[in-house]
Amino acid sequence: QAPDSFPPLRNEAAVHVLRGRMKGIQGHCNSCYMDAALFSLFSCTSVVDSMLFKPFPLCDRNVQSILRDEIVNPLRKTGFVRARSVMHLREQLTEKGQCSSFTNAEKDPEEFLNLIMHQILGIEPLFKLQSGGQKEQDCYCYQIFMDKQEDLVVPDVQQLVERSFLSSNLKLVEIPSCFIIQMPRCGKEYKMFSKIIPSLELDITDLLLDSPRECCVCGDVATLECS
């Protein structure tokens, strides 16, 4: 355990600490969905570090301390987290949640994030979506859904998010405080793409509801949008 707090890894330090054998979060008993989510959320960014320190109204301090002291701090300090630390968290999630299979079954990352962020820590939703003028929906994670498209062989994240929003007629109500996106590569059986290129920056201009944008014909502020 690492009781002290460590900042997220950046640049050369990230490469030095995280590259090589016995690095990352050790998998055990279908934990890959949680390992990948935790690594993405905490290894190299502090955007959701409030999960580790802030005493939210519904916050379970035991789960918060396990997350901080047994997983995030060791990951940032040594680049390695043992499977038993993640299992400790999974046991707590099973105890606090409504599902008895968090310790042994493969889950959807969105189910894990909703449970730990909403029900256990009591964090406010990270962003809001609207579909076709319907009621706004509070979200903690966005899962990409789209039909197979032959022109996308090795897509990047920007392409996937744009096409997924278009096919589902979705818009972001406002600029999100944090935009967690689940790629269409989950599950044991079927993966839509063999590889996905990470987009180091994400342009959400066309994804925002009622955002002023440039007309592609004349260059002035657009008044109509064609999908």
Describe, in short, the structure shown:
With 227 residues, the chain is mainly alpha-helical. It has 7 helices and 7 strands, in the order αβαααβααβββαββ. The strands form 3 sheets. A 3-stranded antiparallel sheet has the order 4-3-6. Strands 1-2 form a two-stranded parallel sheet.
Structural description of this entry:
35% of the residues lie in helices and 8% in strands. The chain has 227 residues and is mainly alpha-helical. The chain folds into two domains: 11-120, Alpha-Beta Complex (Cathepsin B, Chain A), CATH 3.90.70.10; 127-222, no CATH class. The strands form three sheets. Strands 4-3-6 form a three-stranded antiparallel beta sheet. It has a two-stranded parallel ribbon with strand order 1-2. Helix 4 runs antiparallel to helix 5. The chain is globular.
Query: Could you name the CATH topology of the largest domain?
Result: Cathepsin B, Chain A
Query: Which second-level CATH architecture of the largest domain applies?
Result: Alpha-Beta Complex
How many E-type strands?
7
Approximate strand percentage: 5-15%
Structure class: mainly alpha
Low-confidence stretches are none
Q: How large is the count of helical segments?
A: 7
- Main beta-sheet annotation: 3 strands, antiparallel
Helix content: 25-40%
Instruction: State the end-to-end CA separation.
Output: 51 Å
How would the global form be characterised? Answer: globular
Radius of gyration: 19 Å
Name of the CATH homologous superfamily of the largest domain = Cysteine proteinases
Subcellular location: Cytoplasm, Cytoskeleton, Spindle
GO cellular component, one term: spindle
Organism: Burhinus bistriatus
Keywords: Cytoplasm, Hydrolase, Microtubule
